[in-house]
Each structure stands twice: as structure tokens, then as C-alpha cells.
Design goal:
elongated; about 50% helix; 21 helices; five-stranded antiparallel sheet; alpha+beta
Length: about 600
């Protein structure tokens, strides 16, 4: 017992010893120790993120080593590709025509050319005699890839009807003067803008199959590849994937030349540079990168060129191939490259110091680098005044959070933390869930999967019935499920708000990412409740903080912090306040106004 004269510390020690040893000391200690299941959950929560991070880092490094260990130059000329890769005649799979040169003897060369084309019925050879010289010649072209008016008016007509004037005919009669005839045809007789001379049989055949016209003249050492391919293309229409109420009604097309022309028209600046490459190791396509030289960071431009040259693929069917081959992190669910059909958005990006990548055959242009905030921005934010533009942008950020976490929060509150819900709301939810035979996770999965199936079906169906099917199908299935007692009415509201929120994301690929991560958040909530949702969100934030796009942090300007860039982040400041270009892109010229 406590006696007078003892200090306070001795009194506390005596009381503790009396309580522990007088009673059951071990029972007291054990009562404060968490249960075994809590220790297991804590250990899993600690180890799972670490294991996921290390595994993804190892796999990503392995993919990068395997992807770029091949040929580091995809800009291969046509002479480096075997004829079999271009679909030439039989016997070419061993590179039989790779080293064959044209001899200048018309009959011999024409036979070799016919053999190289094999059974290609769409390749045509038109033979004739050049007027005034009695020299035999042939024009070769592929049907559907050339402009027949160009062949008739600028090749056959000058050679067959006009020919060589009488004053110059004597100089071309001798076979040794065939090179003079070739120079005369190229410099004075043929009114065409693009002429390329070649002595390679393989290069001639590939040029014809890729849409060029070939001219073979008796005695001339080699052949001429004339013009470029000209196929049918659609007109310039409004982009389907990025609709605006206010803004230009023009979008890119599948023709690379049309797209570069649109960029030139929108960005009439001498510093706008467009450089072209040939990509695809088997079937070659044209690719172009566009940037403004006195704005874009030279290191960024060099990095883009390096990654494009390292691509190794049979064919680049769409810009999505390019996007996946040059992105920083292959295993990340978040896209690190922006794709858009809008020329105004591309020009705005170029003026911020970014680089655009255009591929022939697709209207989608890639923009690098990209940040997460760019995926939630719309060109219409800048066309409206700054107050409505800021409101709409903040609305999208909030919608993105709802699209990602709303079903997971519903599961965690209903299954684990009903005490956090207001009493009246709990009573309402309990009443709506009366008779539902499934737990909340199964209930949410049924509705979310149904919505995703309806959305995908609406996209794939023909346009006249696709939207109607999606809306009517959602209403019918939701109402029928509620009446059957499979799901609750409150869940229908949650799923509907979630689906509508995902529609507000301007970039379809970004909305698709949030839709996929939503299921991961739901399973985290089903296992650990609200604690699992918080851990999932922290894991996503950690991944975003580590992610980058061509050297630019993905969550810029939040991390790292750039005060000046916050004027165009969540809040869209008035245009007269945004006097400097974003610091994150490290532009050469940082001043927007001069």
C-alpha cells in the first residue's frame, strides 16, 4: 500500500505490481494483443504491395530488355527487305532477286520484272515505243494504288505522242548514248515532280507494289520510279471520339499527307518541323513526327526518334502499335501517350513543347509526353470562359473519383462499416436490401458486368440500333433485377452514377483504365473493407507517382511541384494569366506572349 513519504513514481510502480501480480498478469497482457487474423491481415497488407511492386519492376525490365535487343533501326530502305516480304513471285523467299541488277537490255529486264511480280494480277505492264527514237519502253503500276490520270497525261502522252524532237533524235540513236536519253526524259520530257532512279530489280518491284509507277526504257541502265501512291480516302469530317459543343468541326483522316497538311494549315509557323520515317520490317508504312523546333526540348525530340528507330514489328497497322512499343511502362494500366483525332488539340500540345507522332492509315495522332491531368482536360475548357471551364474540369476530376471508387465504397460500408452511415440512410438501405440473396460483392459484380456488357454491345452493334439497345437494355435489366429481388434499388443508383461518371472522361482510353481498376477496388473492399479501399487508393497513387512519360512525371505538376503549372491543372486560370509554357516539358522558349 501507498505510504506517506513515497514519491509519485514509486506509487505507480507499486500499483502496477499489485495489479499484475495480485491478479492474472498474463491475462492482462494477452487481452491487449490483437487476434491472429489481424496479424495475418497486417502482414498481407504489408507484403502484397511490396511483392506487386517488385514483380512489376522485374517483368517490365525483362520486357524492355527483350523488346529492344533486336534491330535498332527500323527505318530500313527497300533494298534491305527480301522480296518475299513484299509478296513477290515464287522463289523469292530465299532472296533470289535481292542482288539482281537491271542490265539495260529491255527484253531481258522485262522478263526478270515479270518473274519478280509472279502471279500478282493487279500489277499491269503497258508497253509502247517512244516517238522519234523507236526505243521500246514499259510503264508498270499496281491497280488501285496509282493515279491513272498521272500515267496517261504525264507519262504515256509525253512519250508516245510528243517524244523526242527531230533536232535531238540523232544524239539518242547510238546505244552508248542511252544515259543521255535517260537524262533528257528526266530533265525535259516528263512533267512529274518525283522521279527516283534505281538499278535494283528488288527496289523496282517493291516500289511498284507500294504504289509507285515504274518506267523501263530499252538501253537505259536502270529504271525510274515516278510519283507516289494515291488511293481512295474519306473526306475530312468531325471527330467521332471527341465531340465538342464549341470548337472546330474538323478531324484527322487516314491519309498521312492530309494530316500533315492540316497541321501546316493550323500551325503556320516556320519552326514547325515534320520528319518522316519508314516503319515495319515486312510491310512498310510512313510515320512522321512533328514538333516546333524553337519550343520543344531537343532531348525529348531525340528520345522520340530513338524509340521510333528501335521499334521492330512486321507492320504498324494503327498508332496503337506505336503507342505500345514506345511507352515507358508496358505493365502499367495507365496510358502514357495521348491519342487524339483533333488537330486543335495537337497544335496546342506542340505549342507546349510536346511532340506529335502521325502514322499513315489512321486518324489517331499520338502526343508525348502526357500527364494524368491532360487525360481529364478537354479543348472546350479553353474555348469557354475560365469560370465554366474550371467548373467543368473540377467536375471531371470528381467524376473520375466516383468512377473508380463508388462501388468499392458501397461494398465496404454495407459489409464492414454500416456504423459510419447515417441512421436514417442505413434504415433505407436495409429496407431496399431485404430479400436480396447475395452478398454485396456478388450484387455489385452482377450489375457492373451487365453494364460493361451492354456498353460493349452498344459499341459493336450498328449505329442505328447501338445507342437504343444500350439505354433500353440497361433500363430493362435494372428494373427486372430489382423486381426479382436479385439486387437492391440503392445499388442501381450507385451503378448508374458510376457509369455516367465514367462517360465524362474526354479520352476513351483513360475511362477504360478507370473501369478496369474499379474491379480491383471492389475486390479490395470485399476483403478488407474501407481499409482495403484506402490501401488500394494509396497503391494507385504510389504507382502514379513513380510513373513517367518520356521523362516527365505522370502526376505533374502535383509531384514534383510546379507552382506556375497549377494555373492549368485542376483550375483553368484566365488566359491572360497563363503567360508561360508548362515547366514540366522543359520548353526552350518558355514565354507564350512576346
Amino acid at each position: 500500500m501507498y505510504k506517506r513519504g513515497h514519491n509519485t513514481w514509486e506509487y505507480l510502480q507499486l500499483r502496477l505490481a499489485e495489479k499484475c501480480w495480485g491478479g492474472n498478469m498474463w491475462s492482462t497482457i494477452v487481452s491487449y494483443v490483437p487476434e491472429r487474423s489481424i496479424w495475418i491481415q497486417a502482414l498481407l497488407v504489408l507484403l502484397i504491395p511490396i511483392g506487386i511492386t517488385l514483380t512489376m519492376r522485374w517483368i517490365n525490365a525483362s520486357i524492355k530488355r527483350g523488346s529492344f535487343s533486336r534491330s535498332k533501326n527500323s527505318s530500313i530502305s527497300s533494298r534491305d527487305i527480301s522480296p518475299a516480304a513484299a509478296g513477290l513471285g515464287t522463289g523469292t523467299e530465299t532472296g533470289h532477286y535481292a542482288n539482281i541488277k537491271l542490265t539495260g537490255k529491255y527484253s531481258t529486264d522485262l522478263i526478270s520484272v515479270r518473274e519478280s511480280f509472279g502471279q500478282n494480277a493487279d500489277v499491269h505492264i503497258r508497253e509502247f515505243i517512244i516517238r522519234g527514237t523507236n526505243t521500246r519502253a514499259a510503264v508498270m503500276y499496281t491497280e488501285g494504288l496509282v493515279d491513272l490520270d498521272l500515267i496517261d497525261d504525264h507519262l504515256i502522252t509525253p512519250l508516245m505522242l510528243e517524244g523526242v524532237p527531230e533536232l535531238k533524235q540523232e544524239g539518242f540513236v547510238h546505244p552508248d548514248n542511252a544515259h543521255l536519253l535517260a537524262s533528257y526524259l528526266k530533265d525535259q520530257l516528263l512533267p512529274v515532280s518525283q522521279i527516283q532512279e534505281t538499278q535494283s530489280l528488288q527496289e523496282l518491284a517493291l516500289g511498284v507494289l507500294l504504289g509507285k509507277n515504274a518506267l523501263l526504257v530499252d538501253g537505259m541502265p536502270g529504271a525510274m520510279l515516278i510519283g507516289t501512291s494515291k488511293g481512295k480516302s474519306r473526306g475530312i469530317d468531325e471527330p467521332l471520339s471527341e465531340g465538342l459543343l464549341r470548337g472546330p468541326r474538323i478531324g484527322f483522316t487516314e491519309e498521312l499527307s492530309d494530316n500533315t497538311g492540316i497541321l501546316r494549315r493550323y500551325g503556320s509557323d516556320q519552326s514547325l518541323f515534320i520528319q518522316k520515317y519508314e516503319v515495319g520490317s515486312r510491310i512498310k508504312k510512313d510515320l512522321a513526327i512533328a514538333y516546333i523546333q524553337d519550343i520543344a526540348d531537343p532531348n525529348l525530340v531525340a528520345e522520340v526518334r530513338k524509340r521510333i528507330e528501335e521499334m521492330d514489328m512486321d507492320i504498324m497497322l494503327e498508332s496503337g502499335y506505336v503507342e505500345q512499343l514506345i511507352e515507358d511502362s508496358t505493365l502499367s494500366p495507365f496510358q502514357q501517350i495521348l491519342n487524339t483525332e483533333r488537330p486543335d488539340r495537337v497544335i496546342a500540345a506542340l505549342l507546349e513543347g510536346r511532340v506529335a507522332i502521325l502514322l499513315d492509315g489512321t486518324p489517331f495522332v499520338l502526343v508525348v509526353p502526357v500527364t494524368f491531368s491532360m487525360l481529364l482536360q478537354s479543348p472546350e475548357d479553353y474555348y469557354e470562359r475560365w469560370i465554366p471551364g474550371t467548373f467543368l474540369r473540377m467536375l471531371r476530376f470528381m467524376s473520375a473519383m466516383l468512377a473508380l471508387l463508388a462501388p468499392a465504397l458501397y461494398i465496404s460500408f454495407i459489409s464492414f462499416h454500416p456504423g459510419l452511415i447515417p441512421t436514417k440512410l442505413v434504415l433505407t438501405i436495409i429496407e431496399t436490401r431485404t430479400g436480396v440473396p447475395f452478398p454485396s460483392i456478388i450484387e455489385v459484380l452482377i450489375m457492373e458486368l451487365s453494364i460493361e456488357i451492354l456498353r460493349e454491345a452498344g459499341i459493336r452493334l450498328p449505329k442505328p440500333i447501338g445507342p437504343a439497345m444500350g439505354i433500353v437494355g440497361g433500363l430493362i435489366i435494372g428494373q427486372a433485377a430489382v423486381q426479382a429481388g436479385i439486387i437492391s434499388q440503392f445499388l442501381v443508383i450507385v451503378v448508374a452514377v458510376t457509369a455516367i461518371s465514367s462517360f465524362t472522361i474526354p479520352v476513351y482510353s483513360a475511362g477504360l483504365t478507370l473501369r478496369i481498376l474499379r474491379f480491383a477496388a471492389m475486390f479490395s473492399a470485399a476483403v478488407l473493407g474501407l481499409y482495403g479501399v484506402v490501401m488500394f487508393f494509396l497503391l494507385v497513387c504510389t504507382h502514379l507517382a513513380r510513373l513517367s512519360s518520356f521523362g516527365v512525371p505522370y502526376v505533374s505538376p502535383a509531384v514534383p511541384y510546379h507552382m506556375s503549372d497549377w494555373k492549368d491543372f485542376v483550375i483553368r486560370a484566365p488566359l491572360n494569366m497563363m503567360r508561360r509554357r508548362p515547366e514540366m516539358t522543359n520548353p526552350v522558349d518558355q514565354d507564350r506572349k512576346k
